[in-house]
Amino acid sequence: MGTDTADAVAIVGMGCRFAGSDGLEEFWDNLRRGRDCATRGPAPDPAGAGLAADEQPVAAWGLMADRYTFDAGRAGYRGTPKDDPQHGVLYETLVAAAEDAAVRLSEIGGRTALFAACTPYQPLTETSFNGVADTDTRFAANHFSYFHGLHGASVMVDASCATGLTAVHLACQSLRLGSCDHALVGAVSIMPTEGWYPYRPGGIYAVDGVCRPFDTGSTGVIPGDGAAAVLLRRLDDALRDGDPIHAVIRSTAVGNDGHDKAGFVIPGVPGKIRVVRQALAEAGVDGAEIGYVEAHGVGIPLNDEIEATALTEALGPRGVPLAIGSVKAAIGHTNQAAGLAALIKTALQLEHGYLAATPNTREPIETLVKGGERYSIVPRGRAWEDAGVPRLAGVMSAGIGGTNAFAVLEQPPLAAA
Predict the structure, then answer these.
(1) Regarding beta strands 392-398 and 292-294, do their DSSP bridges make them parallel or antiparallel, or are they unpaired?
(2) pLDDT value for 399
(3) DSSP H/E element including 175
(4) 65, containing H or E segment
(5) Which residue of 9, 15, 119, 285 is 20 to 30 Å from 1, comparing CA positions?
(6) Residues 6+ apart with CB under 8 A from 193
(7) 50: phi > 0 → left, psi -120 to 50 → alpha, else beta; which?
(8) Active site residue 161
(9) Active-site residue, selected from the candidate residues 16, 118, 161, 180
(10) With the C-alpha atoms ordered 121, 123, 126, 128, is the resulting torsion angle positive or negative?
């Protein structure tokens, strides 16, 4: 560790399901190989797709394998699950994070908190209490805590696309305050689809079904399925008990743009700069020390321009080489789960000392180039060079409406490697 461990939080367990991967090992293999895991195919006939005159169907989506199925026994269900597969997939992923940490929820439940998120997508048709608990996203956290006997805070979080990292921030705060000894964070997004989306000029989606974050050729984002979870502990506790540690969270910060931007749905530069600088200050880290940022990076040209402006201003033109990446190029935008996908990717890179490629990218946008020679995108994966000090990374997340979240991560301490 580079500094005092008192406020640091360890990521001791991780679990996930994304396009092209049913678990953590497969996810890392796809990242290391630089794979674009989206599913593409023939688009439906626009005449029969119910589209507006200026829309066209694009058949591209980060589809999870067996997206509507899960192991109900492993997830902890008592009885038969109802309609919404998101609950079961989320629960299965939370259990996977605990298994990755080699702990039993039955043994740690008394002091374990849960911060969870689901993407709402279907009308409620159930009228019984039990039926609603299986289908209404508001009950997903409490239902899991009921199944697995968790006694800590059990809270649903929603900050739009910034939800996953915002939930991590709340979990870290809970650990630092001593409100819990373990904190589970999980999020899921599985939206009904036939594998295509409506493209409209000037909209958020890519015209060609390919997401190219911070690349001059990008035209937008593509959607994706995702479920991700992490199990967190205070670093001192994890080191004392010999827990496996994927990475260390040195600090987190969450804020809002307020009205310092052009419109409600348009991101703002000042708000992003504030959260980055706040997280750096709380971690006791200078922007010059950050070697990688897993950005929100949606591939929408205006959004990427704004984010690049904020990152280069907040982190500065001088320092170690700084690569900018985004997992959305590989799996699509996973909505509420996007921040956790970014966190897990970054933790794996820190753990393995490897910068995974951002698929389909070649030439960085001018804003990154103007930020200084230290900035680059990652068209091809490469080793993360050892500079003789612990590797440091940032994770950025942003939500529609103005929520910004940033975390500073460090490679696992040698004692836990």
Answers:
(1) parallel
(2) 96
(3) helix 163-176
(4) none
(5) 15
(6) 61, 63, 223
(7) left
(8) yes
(9) 161
(10) positive
List b or e across 350-378, with b for residues whose CB sees 16 or more CB atoms inside 10 angstroms. bbbeebbbbbbbeebbebbeebeebbbbb
At 18, is the secondary structure helix, strand, or coil?
Answer: strand
Tell me which residue has tokens 């820190």. 350
Its sign, for the CA torsion 138, 141, 145, 148, is positive
Question: Which residue from 157, 169, 211, 166 is spatially nearest to 402, judged by alpha carbons?
Answer: 166
Mean pLDDT within 279-289:
98
Spatial neighbors of 219 by CB under 8 A, at least 6 apart, are 206, 207, 208, 212, 299, 301
Tell me how far CA of residue 154 lies from CA of 84, 140, 221, 401, in angstroms.
20, 9, 32, 25
**Which pLDDT band, with edges at 50, 70 and 90, does 68 fall under?**
confident
Residues facing residue 293 across a β-bridge: 324, 394
What is the pTM assigned to this prediction? 0.96
pLDDT digits (tens, 9 = 90+) for 114-151: 999 999 765 555 445 566 666 778 889 999 999 999 99
Q: Quote the pLDDT of residue 127.
A: 46
Query: pLDDT tens-digit profile of 184-239?
Result: 999 999 998 999 999 999 999 999 999 999 999 999 999 999 999 999 999 999 99
pLDDT of residue 157: 98
Q: Give me the catalytic one of 87, 169, 246, 296.
A: 296
CA atoms lying within 13 Å on the CB side of residue 135: 15
- Of 143, 169, 182, 333, catalytic: 333
Which has the closest alpha carbon to 19: 48, 61, 72, 58? 61
**Alpha helices for 210-300 (secondary structure H):** 235-241, 269-283
Cβ atoms within 10 Å of 136's Cβ, excluding its own: 18
